[in-house]
Design a protein that fits this description.
It contains 2 helices and 8 strands, in the order βαββββαβββ. It is of the alpha/beta class. It has a single domain, classed as 2,3-Dihydroxybiphenyl 1,2-Dioxygenase, domain 1 (Roll). Strands 1-4-3-2 form a 4-stranded mixed β-sheet, covered by helices on one side. It has a 4-stranded mixed β-sheet with strand order 5-8-7-6, with helices on one face. β3 and β4 form a beta hairpin. α1 packs antiparallel against α2. The longest helix has 12 residues. The radius of gyration is 16 Å and the shape is elongated.
Length: 141
């Protein structure tokens, strides 16, 4: 079956975020404001929680849903930091950085020129997920 533009990328790895406290719809709005995400799908459950959503962020797919603790063990609850960082490689890190801060992200590691040649920093979104932002500024030495 051929893929259409609205389906998003077919290959690669797609992060799938679990959002605590019934805030998945709010997270979608944040990702749209912070990173220019485009919504492809939204499927609510019968009890009003968001069962599945699909966004395109910076050309890649991102799926998310409200937490459903009744379907997973206690070790799968979303915590303050789950060890995962979502990385966005962009043309202009300063613009994306400011846009994310304006939308409500918090600085984890300041945006600055790094020794490997990128302008790079790390943000935390209001839902506990870490996002790194990078843009090339020069060839690594």
């Amino acid at each position: 079956m051929a893929r259409t533009e609205n389906q998003g990328p077919a290959d690669g790895v797609t992060p799938h975020l679990s959002i605590p406290d019934r805030r998945a719809a709010e997270a979608m709005d944040f990702y749209k404001a912070a990173f220019g995400a485009r919504e492809l799908a939204r499927m609510p459950s019968e009890d009003g929680r968001l069962m599945h959503a699909h966004l395109i962020v910076n050309g890649g797919s991102l799926m998310l849903h409200d937490e459903f603790p009744e379907h997973v063990g206690p070790d799968h609850r979303v915590g303050p930091y789950n060890g995962v960082t979502l990385h966005l490689q962009v043309a202009d890190a300063d613009t994306v950085w400011k846009q994310a801060l304006d939308a409500g992200a918090a600085v984890e590691m300041p945006l600055q020129d790094q020794f490997w040649g990128d302008r790079y920093g790390v943000l935390k979104d209001p839902f506990g997920h870490r996002w790194s932002i990078g843009a090339p500024v020069k060839a690594p030495t």
